[in-house]
Amino acid sequence: MIFSYSLKTAVTGLKTNRSRSLLTILGIVIGIAAIILIMSLGQGAQQLILNQVQGMGSKTIVVIPGREPKGPSDAAQVFSDSLKIRDLELLQNKENVPTLGSVMPLLFTGVSASYGSETYRPTIFGVSPLIQQIFDLDVSEGEFFSNDDVRARADVVVIGSKVKEQLFGDSPALGEKIKIKDRNFRVIGIMPSKGQVSFFNFDEAVIVPYTTAQQYVLGIKYFHRFIAEATSQDLIAQTVTDIKATLRESHKITDPDKDDFFVQTQEDLAARLGLITQVLTLFLAAVAAISLVVGGIGIMNIMLVSVTERTREIGLRKSIGATDRDILMQFLLEAVLLTGTGGVAGIIIGGTLSVICALILTNFVGLDWSFQFPFFGAFLGIVVSGVIGLVFGIYPAKQAARKSPMEALRYE
Questions:
Q1: What string of DSSP letters covers 38-104?
Q2: Across the strands, what pairs with 186?
Q3: Which residues pair with 263 in a beta bridge?
Q4: pTM, entire model
Q5: Long-range contacts of 14-20 (CB under 8 A, 24+ apart)
Q6: Alpha carbons 361 and 138: distance in angstroms, whole number
Q7: Beta-carbon count within 10 A of 317 CB
Q8: Cβ-based burial of 152 (10 A; exposed 0-12, middle 13-18, buried ≥19)
Q9: Quick check: 150 and 109 in contact, CB under 8 A?
Q10: pLDDT tens-digit readout, 218-265
Q11: Do 58 and 232 form a contact (C-beta atoms < 8 A)?
Q12: CA-to-CA distance for 367 and 77, rounded, in angstroms?
């Protein structure tokens, strides 16, 4: 029997029991749709993270206090007081790090700010004026504070658009004073709406001189981060080496394994976060793939029932010349068609759900989310569903092919 006739016979057999065929492939549809959705969201999350990392600039280097975490138990070591003003001064010295273009200390905390009867809890950033250059910030009203304000520990702030909206509404904010930690700070600048920039939402930020943040907001004498920029992207590796050498000398560290700080470049951070999201996506996809195995077992079960129900049909076909191979091919094709159709339907449903999720995350959650269709996942879904049809369809097909035509015709 030619292949085209076997295919036509298999399609006719499936059409005879449409409802049962649809219910049979439901497990495959759900499994493939879940895999497509998970992989799409995983790729979207990875792209979002990479965009956030790149938003800080490719030449940016971050120095973080504490030992570099190697696992969950090391996470607490990041909260350290190892970065001091002496370290900042040494890094600013060109003789120590010749390829360093600029370096800025960073402090951050969440503290309530109030104006009149209104209260809002923004993120307080203690920085230098270099933040404008590093994060490409500007003000729509007023001006940014200067290095003189930093030296004077001035009680001045630059606020984000959402902070202005929450505390002042439609009233003018420039020149007004907001209260933070029972101290009045004069608003000298208002930033336009900018949204998320490299994990920081400056719309919800209050930016103050780092000296002011240290003395009046946090009451500490150390820094949470150093944000540095190399003079050239090609010199990042050399800059990192010099930064480490300078800080080790400052902290009297001779063994690199005992560093009380660690350095991250944007490339390092992107690679690490990308690997984490990729592993997580594959893990979730593997969990979703379990439903494919369940769906395959369901298909084998239904096919065995179908073989029993169609015993007389098998006997009749064999009596008019169909071979064991023809019967085997027919039932095997039915199983592959079932799983293949389920795979295609799963890809369409999974892709549609992915688009809907991307629209929700973009329009309602406010994330800069882009829809990513996992072409490799779709290809894998088609291949896997076909393989499942073959694997779980072989046994029922063999059972059908082994039936004796005389016994099959006598079957009631």
A1: HHHHHHHHHHHHHHHHHTT-TTEEEEEESPPPSSGGGGGGGS----BHHHHHHHH-TTT-TTEEEEE
A2: 156, 177
A3: 63
A4: 0.60
A5: 14/334, 14/337, 14/338, 17/306, 20/302
A6: 27
A7: 20
A8: middle
A9: no
A10: 999 999 999 988 888 778 889 989 999 999 999 999 888 888 899 888
A11: no
A12: 30
